[in-house]
Amino acid sequence: MQVNTLILGAGAAGMMAAAHAGPSTLVVDHARAPGEKIRISGGGRCNFTNLYAEPANFICANPHFMKSALSRYTQWDFIDLVNAHGIAWHEKTLGQLFCDDTAKQIITMLRAEMERAGAQLWLQTTVGEITHDGAFRVSLMREGRETRISARNLVLATGGKSIPKMGATGLAYQIAAQFGLPLVTPRPGLVPLTFGETFKPLAGVALHSRAQGQGPAFEEATLFTHRGLSGPAILQASSYWQEGESITLDLSPQTSLFDLLKSARQTAGRRALTTVLSQHLPARVVAYLGEDLPKTNLADLSDARLADIAQRLHHWQLTPTGSEGYRTAEVTLGGIDTDALNSATMEAKALPGLYAIGEAVDVTGWLGGYNFQWAWSSGWAAGTAIAKAAHHLA
Ligand SMILES: Cc1cc2nc3c(=O)[nH]c(=O)nc-3n(C[C@H](O)[C@H](O)[C@H](O)COP(=O)(O)OP(=O)(O)OC[C@H]3O[C@@H](n4cnc5c(N)ncnc54)[C@H](O)[C@@H]3O)c2cc1C
C-alpha cells in the first residue's frame, strides 16, 4: 500500500500533524484508542495549553529551537480551534487552561479534524521493520496480517518513555538512531523525587513553597509523600534536577520568617519558637523540624539566631536519593537531538521526508499545559510542511 505520509503514533502530536498533512495520510498506533495520554491528562480535564506559553517555558539543549513552531502555531491558535468545536474551558491557575467537561472532547475534536482532512487511523497496529530507498518501506502488523507500506514521508510521533503502562515504548528513539539521528539522553521529567524513609512522618502534608533545582525557582504546592516529595513545585524542579544534586525548598516564600519571628518576639516573647512557627507553617512540619530547632522562648533568641533559623527554613537543602522514574514521570526529558532537525518543519536535515514531533524530540515543557502546546505546535509545523511539499509536487 502506498501513502504520501505515514505517522507513527496517534497521540497529541501525531493527530495534530495528521489533521494538516494533506491527502494520503495514514496514522498508526499500537494502542486500542488514540490520545490515551490526553484522556487521562489534567485529572481527566486536559490542561490543553497555557495562556503564557513562550520558549522560556521549555527545556532543550538548543533554547532557540522551539521558537519558530511556537510562534507560528500559538496557544491562541489552539484556543481558536477549541472554541470552533464548542468546547467550554476555564483558566484554573497560572494561565493553565482546562476543559470544563472532559478531556475526551479534545480527542473527539482531533479525530474530527483528522477525518475532515481525510487521514486514516489504524489502531492496534504494530510497527515492524523500516527501510528507506527514496521512500520509507514499513512493515505493519494489524489483525494478524502484515501490510507493507510505502511512504514518501515518515513522521515519528510515538512520544517518550514516560509511563510504559500506558504504552510508551521509546520507538521513535530506535528509528531515529537507525537513520543516524543523534539523541540527547532521555530521562524522567516532572517526576516525584524520592528520599527513602526520610519524610514518612510527614506523608500527606502539603504547603505552599518555592522549589529550585539547577534551573528557575517554582512557587507552587509541595506535597510530602511516603516516598519523598511531590506536588507541582517539586515536579517542576525535578526537570532541572539530576542524580546527586540537591534542591532548595523555601517553606515560606511569601513571608519573611525573620520579620515574622522578630515581631512575634516583641509582642509575645514568652512563646516557644515552635508554637509561633506552627501558626505559620503546617504543625507537622514544625514538629518534624523541631528536633533541630532551639527549644526556647522567642525572648531568648538573638537577632542572629532568628536570622539563622529563618535562613534554614527559607533555604532547606535537600538531596533526593532518586526519582520515581518513568513509572510516574509526566514527561521524558531529552530525546531526538534538535540539531538534527529543521526548526520550521521538524524534518531531519540529513534525511528529507523523515520528521520527528512532540515528546519524542528533545523539547520538554514545564507543568501547566506547555507539553501539549509543544505537541500542537510541532505537529502543526510538520503537517503543514508536508502538505506544502505535496502541493508543490502535484
Ligand atoms: C498522567 C499524565 C498527565 C499529563 N497531563 C498533561 C497536561 O494536563 N497538560 C500537558 O500539557 N501535558 C500533560 N502531560 C504530558 C503530555 O501528555 C505529553 O507531553 C503529550 O501527550 C506528548 O504528546 P506526543 O503526541 O508526543 O506523545 P503521546 O501523547 O505519548 O503519544 C504517543 C503515541 O504513540 C503510541 N506509541 C508509542 N509507542 C508505540 C509503538 N511502539 N508502536 C505504535 N505506537 C506507539 C502511543 O500509544 C501514543 O498513542 C501529561 C502526561 C501524563 C503521563
Short description:
This protein is α+β, with helices and mostly antiparallel strands and 394 residues long. It has 12 helices and 21 strands.
List keywords for this structure.
alpha+beta, 7-stranded antiparallel β-sheet, binds flavin-adenine dinucleotide, 26% strand, 394 residues, 30% helix, 7-stranded mixed β-sheet
Small molecules held by this entry = flavin-adenine dinucleotide
Low-pLDDT runs of 5+ residues are none
Shape: elongated
Query: What is the residue-mean pLDDT, rounded to a whole number?
Result: 97
| SS-derived structural category | alpha+beta
Number of helices: 12
Could you characterize what this model shows?
This protein is of the alpha+beta class. The protein has 12 helices and 21 strands. Strands 1, 2, 7, 8, 9, 10 and 20 form a 7-stranded mixed sheet that branches. The chain has a 7-stranded antiparallel sheet with strand order 17-16-13-14-15-12-18. A 3-stranded antiparallel sheet has the order 3-6-5. Helix 1 runs parallel beside helix 5. The protein is elongated. Flavin-adenine dinucleotide (FAD) binds next to helix 1, helix 2 and helix 12. Flavin-adenine dinucleotide (FAD) binds at residues 8-14, 29-31, 36-37, 40-42, 46-47, 127, 157-159, 162-163, 167-169, 171, 330-331, 358-360, 369-372, 375.
